[in-house]
Amino acid sequence: MSKEHCYYCFDSLVSHFDGRPVTSPTFDSSSFPLFVTWSTTEDGSTRNLRLRGCIGNFGAMPLHSGLNEYALTSAFKDGRFPPIDRKELTSLVCGVSLLVEFEDGDNYLDWEVGRHGIWIEFKDTRGRKKTATYLPEVAKEQGWSKEQAIESLLRKGGYREAISQEFLDAVILTRYQSRKAQVTYQEYLDSL
């Protein structure tokens, strides 16, 4: 994992705005499950970030095509936010998370805040399978306990009913770790 991955995501976004093809990266194209996160910063630092888009894939993808695809998908198609606009470039921070070390949890609390990302599977009241995930840094950044993170993740996944212990015991949890890098737009410009 390196900042080169984040620079390439910025390249993808800027190339999209400029209407030109993205330049091929120099790093290898190993395959990983990955997420691209766009945030904004008020002061040009990576503190006090405001989420602007975050989408990824749990299927291993070649880094070249995967980062290009998800840099744009997370910038323009995260339904929680309006698409990123060119005027936002100077305030953007890009984070790339390569997901590793997937393990089945014994129960919904079998993970560590700040160390593991969590992916849960559950059934809604109609018996439909639903899933949701938080990357490893989310619970820690939010100051959540494991229980608070699971409740928030269930709500993110669309579960609106009361959460009983019986329901929680039926949740299937997979924990994972990530290798993450992030860079500001200014760091990207300095790398050119």
UniProtKB/TrEMBL annotation:
Short name of any one Pfam family annotated for the protein: AMMECR1
Signal peptide (UniProt feature, chain positions): none
Domain AMMECR1: 1-192
Alphabetical list of PROSITE patterns matching this protein: AMMECR1
NCBIfam families: TIGR00296 family protein (TIGR00296)
Name of this protein: AMME syndrome candidate protein 1 protein
Gene of this entry: AMMECR1
